[in-house]
Amino acid sequence: MQQPAPDPDQPQAIDRRGFLGAVAVAAAAVAPVPIPAQAGAAPGKPLGPSGVPIVVNGVEHKMDVDVRTTLLDYLRDHLHLTGTKKGCDHGQCGACTVHVNGRRINSCLALALAHEGDEVTTIEGLGAPERLHPMQAAFVEHDGYQCGYCTAGQIMSATALLDEPCGPADADVRECMSGNLCRCGAYSNIVAAIQQVRREGGR
Hints:
Blueprint: H1 16-30, E1 52-56, E2 59-63, H2 71-78, E3 97-100, E4 103-106, E5 119-121, H3 123-126, H4 134-141, H5 151-161, H6 170-176, H7 187-200
Helix pairs in contact: 4-7
Organism: Pseudoduganella chitinolytica
InterPro entries: 2Fe-2S-bd, 2Fe-2S-bd_dom_sf, 2Fe-2S_ferredoxin-like_sf, 2Fe-2S_ferredoxin-type, 2Fe2S_fd_BS, Aldehyde_Oxdr_Iron-Sulfur, Beta-grasp_dom_sf, TAT_signal
Pfam family, one: Fer2_2
């Protein structure tokens, strides 16, 4: 017996096979079109200009990095200066603090290529085991660290603070150091170390 022709004015039932076919067609229609990679660059890794100069701890380096590379990752992964720590990677803990042209910054928030020609100082460039910076020596004397993970960032911030407007009281120092967190809670010892260096005029 011949089936009657479907009425175009009536909604038609759809089986599972038909539904999946319709979904596949719709997905293909909105699929993103791949963009050709930049010549000479790995897919998804846009390279920056080659040979961009930066001075780190008094030594000039030529950067040849992905444009998204942070200053923190450049220091750690390319120059192997691992004293600068990666803590939160969001600019909230201060473990990655370094000096750029004499001022402290969170290196996890800075792009390496944005610092063309700048002078960067890390904890490795501040002092050496046989010749500690006065702030490093004060941290040792006052036990200004416990686990030590935040210590490099604390010391880099503390030495920058010596050249910043900061009141004389302990509370003033705590406020100026509020961007550096110590999960071990060695804050009173850190403040004592900083205040000693300030009294003695250490640099």
